[in-house]
Amino acid sequence: MADSTTDQAHLISRRRLLGTAGAAGAAGLVAGSAAGAFGDQAVRDRQAPLTGVGSASVAFHGTHQAGIVQPAQAHGHLAAFDLAPGADRKAAAALLRRWSATAAELMAGQAPKGDDTGIALDAGPASLTVTFGFGHGFFDRTGLADKRPTALDPLPAFTGDALDAKRSDGDLWVQIGADDALVAFHALRVLQKQAAGAARVRWQMNGFNRAPGATERPKTARNLMGQMDGTNNPKPTDANFDERVFVPDGHKGADAWMAGGSYAVVRRIRMLLDSWDNLALERQEKVIGRRKSDGAPLSGGTETTPVDLDKVGPDGALAIAGDAHVRVAAPASNQGAAMLRRAFSYHDGFLDDGAPDAGLLFIAWQADPLKGFVPVQRKLDRGDGLSRFLRHESSGLFAVPGGCAEGEYVGQRLLEG
């Protein structure tokens, strides 16, 4: 039987723990470092339990769901669920109501009602975001096929695909990100437990990024090929950002419930790192079209200098090769098509031949995948020099509704409309 001290600890919310962080002050930090590993308990108790990374939080409620425009966190989990046999629209609505309430509590740094796991009891929210989406089959299973958006039609086949159906698609999709691994896992575990009886996990993937503070200043993240990844991402300050990423407010038709939402294309892309690492640096840079050291385009300048696709080198050849990734993927090469990429790297051990089972959990956000992901991927599929070093092994497309107000739940306009 737990003693009274343990019982009290379980009553303390993670939000209240945030309040103690500032009280310890800098003096506590200095004392803690001087005491060393064997300092007395009083000194340890005076140390601030949370840093700025741990106490950072993102609001759950709002016009858009969190986890789209925010920078990708250090730890991520992606999971797809299939509705259980017999689960109907009413059961789906009850599940989304539970999930939304729990996500709001977790993102605010509070322990969810009824949760006694203690996994992240002493942690702050650590920039936790939880995002929910609906797959193609969700609408058939809930009797809402007439509300399914045409933008959710299955993606076309691409010649470079080697997709595993068991790790693709799904009725429901959950994206979790946090800057603390325990906070991220805790959210995944609680949501998975709350799905019991209504939905079961179809597939689940774990990812990571560089930890906050790992560089002397904020920098574009690198992927497992060592390349800066995301330099040319659309930015919220761009005049047409919302138009590219979010379904407009006032959207009409059967899928009017998607106003303020977005569509997520999710791809597990394995990188053939043994082959890639055997390329000389100069060859790697030509395949990408950027310098590996600082991300600057081979046409000149710095990382943020616009790529000059017409630039010719002293030898008369294009500075950016015809099959370079940045050329083939550029909006200028795709009639303006663009998407917001928000990815996590992954490493799932080693294959039988010793090659790393590692790569990118690619998530692309757009207002319409037929105008964003599909045309760009078709172009990459036909002429991207990087494609020789990649294998697309799973895929999913999900309708991610807009955010909800306090007292509401994600998807309420669909499920109760």
TrEMBL record:
Binds 1 heme b (iron(II)-protoporphyrin IX) group non-covalently per subunit. Its cofactor is heme b. Its main location: other. Keywords: Heme, Iron, Lyase, Metal-binding, Oxidoreductase, Peroxidase, Signal. One of its GO terms (biological process) is iron import into cell. One of its GO terms (molecular function) is ferrochelatase activity. It is an enzyme of class 1 (oxidoreductase). Its EC number is 1.11.1.-. One of its GO terms (cellular component) is cell envelope. Pfam families: Dyp_perox_C, Dyp_perox_N. It comes from the Bacteria. Residues 220-404 form the Dyp-type peroxidase C-terminal domain. It catalyses: heme b + 2 H(+) = protoporphyrin IX + Fe(2+). Residues 65-209 form the Dyp-type peroxidase N-terminal domain. It is found in: Cell envelope. Involved in the recovery of exogenous heme iron. Extracts iron from heme while preserving the protoporphyrin ring intact. Belongs to the DyP-type peroxidase family. NCBIfam families: Dyp_perox_fam, tat_substr_1. This is Deferrochelatase. It comes from Streptomyces olivoverticillatus.
